[in-house]
Amino acid sequence: MDESGIIGQMILESSGRIKKSSGTLDNPKLIPFITTIVSSTAKILDKQSLNRVTLSYQESDIIIYIDQNDIVVLERKK
User: Fold this and answer.
1) Cα 32 from Cα 2, distance rounded (Å)
2) Please, are residues 40 and 24 in contact by the beta-carbon 8 Å criterion?
3) If DSSP codes are grouped into helix, strand and coil, which group holds residue 46?
4) pLDDT in tens, 32-46
5) Are 23 and 9 in contact (CB under 8 A)?
6) Residue 35: its pLDDT value, please?
7) What's this model's pTM, rounded to 2 decimal places?
8) pLDDT of the residue at 2
9) Which of 4, 27, 34, 61 has the greatest number of beta carbons closer than 10 A?
């Protein structure tokens, strides 16, 4: 994966528990919101047999993908 332009990263277990967060995604006010969206998205991806989705949000793209047992969230500047 191309790491250029990445401004935030979060890694969650498949249960939704956060393992690591950094950059723009390491924000205590946003974390509950992000984890809810991510775990819901991961369930949908799993049902559709997909492993990645990109969401556009204001000035950036949020990339959510399932990597083995972890869910990885990256925020990239557009």
Assistant:
1) 27
2) no
3) helix
4) 888 888 888 888 888
5) yes
6) 87
7) 0.82
8) 65
9) 34
Distance from C-alpha of 16 to C-alpha of 39, rounded to nearest angstrom: 6
The span from the CA of 69 to the CA of 6, in Å, is 22
The listed CATH number (3.30.450.30, 3.30.70.2860, 3.40.50.300, 2.60.120.1680) that belongs to domain 6-77: 3.30.450.30
Q: Phi/psi at 2 (nearest 5 deg)?
A: -75, 120
For residue 52, what are the CA distances in angstroms to 29, 49, 75?
Answer: 25, 10, 13
Residue 1 has a pLDDT of: 58
Cβ pair 31, 5 in contact under 8 A: no
Amino acid at 60: S
pLDDT of residue 24: 94
Identify the three-state secondary structure at position 28: coil
